[in-house]
């Protein structure tokens, strides 16, 4: 019951949490609470009462059945034990009876017991004497019992009566009980033994007949081993792990309770009752699954769920119809305000009727028009500022390139190539914009390098090359005071770093190099190799891509080279038509 009440409570909480988002939910929840919850509470209360009542009745029924079967088993065992005791007394009174008379006595005893005795033998101290054997006891089964009979004979000669059960006989033969009784002379000294094999098949048939409606009945001995059961395949199994059997072995008293079967912990609980079989120390265990016992309760619960579900659907339908009439205008206004919040300033809320919501929609539309006009003006101003900013950057880049006629347009091309690479790396639009600006200004530090070094047609000396290597740091120093450009400074300072750490100025390696600098490094080299310089002619596109791919993981980041090749193949990067020098010199990439 608590589980179902908890589920109902969770549903109610789920509705209450939506009260602030729409009027539909509180209206529907109210109707559900008024109609469904009382029906569910009454239904499940009744089901719980029925379950408790059925549990009590089931326990009483199992207890009666267990006691009755235990009494029947006790009578069966005691009656046949009495017959054996009668034979023992008769032989003690007439110790000189001939073997022939002994055989007649044994045969009459076997027949009087409805042939429950499969074997009876009177043996002297040498183990010899008269016996009778029922044809039902085949030779193979008899050979199985020989050792047990011999042990019973030996114990009887010691004056010890025995009762031993044998299960798992050949041919799926039902279990048997082996008795051993001492035959005493007038002085009370054992002079022989009386051994017998009692068939437990009648008890097993009675257990099978008693197991109705999903019941399971077992007869177990002192060790917890099943001697007979309503399901013959359970004979010989150890049921000591059953809570009732374990308790009975400690204290052999009647007990009835509900528990989980340890041999099948994932199954439904069972109701069980145990009762003792007198004089044997055995017990009768009656069990029935609660799944069978409480079938009427489950049917009641199903009907309660069905009725509650129908009532809930009706309540939800009525609540939805009423709430839609109230909430549709508000939901439409909420939809429009969401679109405006997401940037669609042209949308307007429909105005229907003349109630308070219609007045609210009219004022909302007026406010939205004012916001749209303001945003339009702000966007225009922002666009003008960006264009002014970009023109300023381009002018500065042109001034840099003007210092060297061979590098005219270099900064713009590197910027274009860098943006294409950044897009193929799936960078965000904001990151692509930063890459664009950093690429345009990547050589701004060359403003601090002498023209004689920049425009020298031959190779640089070590001293001149050392000066040239300072241009990334000079560029970073030039841009440092401009706070708006602080995010692009890594691209200016580190675009000559290499993947293996042999670059400059900071000797960064691998992922230590900022992504913007990795991109500009590849774009800068690509432009240098595909355009004519004082020291080299422009190289073919295939040759450039092959060489740069070879330098992947040594000079360039592998993912950047992959993006460069992808951009070239997609047509997003197209180098300018090369202009050849009159004489080719050795390539030297700065």
The mean pLDDT is 82
Sheet with the most strands? 5 strands, antiparallel
The proportion of residues forming helix, as a percent range, comes to 40-55%
What is the alpha-carbon Rg in Å?
51 Å
Distance between the termini: 82 Å
Strand order of the largest sheet: 2-1-5-4-3
Q: Residue ranges: pLDDT <50 for 5 or more in a row? A: 582-590
> What is the tally of helical segments?
18
Structural class: alpha+beta
Share of β-strand residues? 5-15%
SSE arrangement, N to C:
HHHEEHEEEHEEHEEEHHHHHHHHHHHH
The general outline is: elongated
Count of strand segments? 10
Helices and strands, with pairings:
Elements: H1 2-16, H2 24-93, H3 99-112, E1 117-124, E2 131-133, H4 139-157, E3 162-166, E4 176-184, E5 190-199, H5 201-210, E6 215-220, E7 226-229, H6 243-250, E8 255-259, E9 270-277, E10 282-289, H7 290-293, H8 295-341, H9 356-402, H10 410-424, H11 429-440, H12 451-454, H13 462-468, H14 471-479, H15 489-493, H16 515-530, H17 541-550, H18 558-569
Antiparallel strand pairs: 1-2, 1-5, 3-4, 4-5, 6-7, 6-10, 8-9, 9-10
Helix pairs in contact: 1-2, 2-3, 2-5, 2-8, 8-9, 10-11, 10-16, 10-18, 16-17
Defining key terms:
alpha+beta; five-stranded antiparallel β-sheet; 18 helices; 11% strand; elongated
Structure explained in plain terms:
With 590 residues, the chain is of the alpha+beta class. The protein contains 18 helices and 10 strands. The strands form 2 sheets. A 5-stranded antiparallel β-sheet has the order 2-1-5-4-3, with helices on both faces. A 5-stranded antiparallel β-sheet has the order 7-6-10-9-8. Strand 1 and strand 2 form a beta hairpin. Helix 10 packs antiparallel against helix 11 and helix 10 crosses helix 16. The longest helix has 70 residues. It is elongated, with a radius of gyration of 51 Å. The two termini are 82 Å apart. The relative contact order is 0.07.
């Amino acid at each position: 019951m608590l589980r179902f009440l908890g589920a109902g409570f969770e549903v109610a909480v789920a509705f209450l949490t939506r009260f602030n988002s729409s009027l539909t939910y509180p209206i529907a929840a109210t109707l559900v609470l008024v109609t469904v919850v009382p029906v569910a509470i009454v239904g499940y209360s009744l089901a719980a009462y029925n379950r408790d009542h059925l549990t009590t009745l089931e326990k009483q029924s199992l207890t009666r059945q267990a006691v009755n079967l235990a009494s029947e088993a006790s009578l069966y065992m005691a009656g046949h034990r009495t017959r054996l005791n009668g034979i023992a007394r008769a032989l003690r009174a007439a110790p000189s009876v001939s073997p022939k008379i002994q055989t007649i006595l044994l045969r009459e005893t076997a027949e009087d017991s409805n042939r429950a005795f499969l074997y009876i033998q009177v043996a002297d101290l040498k183990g010899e004497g008269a016996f009778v054997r029922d044809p039902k006891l085949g030779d193979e089964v008899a050979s199985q019992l020989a050792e047990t009979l011999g042990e019973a004979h030996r114990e009887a000669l010691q004056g010890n009566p025995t009762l031993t059960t044998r299960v798992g006989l050949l041919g799926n033969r039902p279990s048997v009980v082996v008795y051993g009784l001492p035959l005493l002379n007038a002085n009370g000294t054992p002079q022989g033994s009386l051994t017998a094999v009692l068939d437990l098949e009648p008890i097993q048939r009675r257990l099978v007949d008693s197991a109705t409606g999903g019941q399971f009945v077992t007869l177990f001995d002192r060790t917890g081993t099943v001697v007979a059961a309503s399901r013959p395949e359970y004979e010989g199994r150890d049921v000591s792990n059953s809570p009732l059997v374990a308790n009975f072995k400690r204290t052999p008293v009647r007990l009835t309770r509900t528990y989980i079967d340890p041999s099948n912990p994932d199954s439904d609980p069972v109701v069980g009752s145990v009762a003792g079989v007198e004089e044997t120390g055995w017990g009768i265990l009656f069990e029935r699954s609660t799944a069978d016992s409480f079938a009427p309760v489950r049917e009641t619960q199903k009907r309660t769920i069905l009725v509650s579900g129908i009532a809930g659907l009706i309540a939800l339908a009525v609540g939805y119809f009423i709430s839609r009439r109230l909430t549709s205008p508000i939901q439409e206004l909420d939809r429009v305000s969401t679109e405006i919040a997401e940037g669609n300033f042209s949308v307007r809320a429909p105005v229907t009727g003349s109630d308070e919501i219609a007045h609210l929609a009219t004022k909302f539309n007026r406010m939205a028009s004012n916001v749209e006009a303001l945003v339009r003006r702000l966007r225009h101003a922002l666009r003008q500022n960006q264009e002014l900013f970009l023109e300023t950057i381009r002018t500065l880049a042109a001034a840099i390139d003007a210092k060297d006629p061979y590098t005219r347009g270099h900064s713009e091309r590197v910027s274009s190539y860098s943006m294409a690479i950044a897009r193929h790396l799936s960078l965000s639009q904001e990151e692509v914009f930063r890459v664009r600006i950093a690429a345009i200004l990547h050589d701004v530090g060359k403003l601090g390098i002498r023209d004689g070094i920049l425009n020298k047609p031959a190779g640089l000396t070590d001293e001149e090359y050392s000066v040239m290597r300072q241009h990334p740091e000079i560029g970073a120093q030039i841009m440092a005071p401009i706070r708006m450009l602080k995010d692009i400074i890594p691209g200016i300072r580190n675009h000559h770093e290499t993947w293996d750490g042999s670059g400059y100025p900071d000797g960064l390696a691998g992922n230590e190099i900022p992504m913007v600098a990795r991109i500009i490094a590849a774009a800068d080299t690509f432009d240098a190799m595909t355009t004519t310089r004082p020291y080299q002619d422009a190289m073919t596109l295939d040759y450039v891509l092959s060489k740069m791919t070879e330098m992947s993981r040594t000079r360039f980041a592998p993912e950047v080279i992959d993006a460069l090749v992808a951009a070239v193949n997609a047509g997003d990067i197209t180098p300018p038509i090369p202009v050849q020098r009159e004489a080719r010199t050795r390539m030297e990439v700065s």
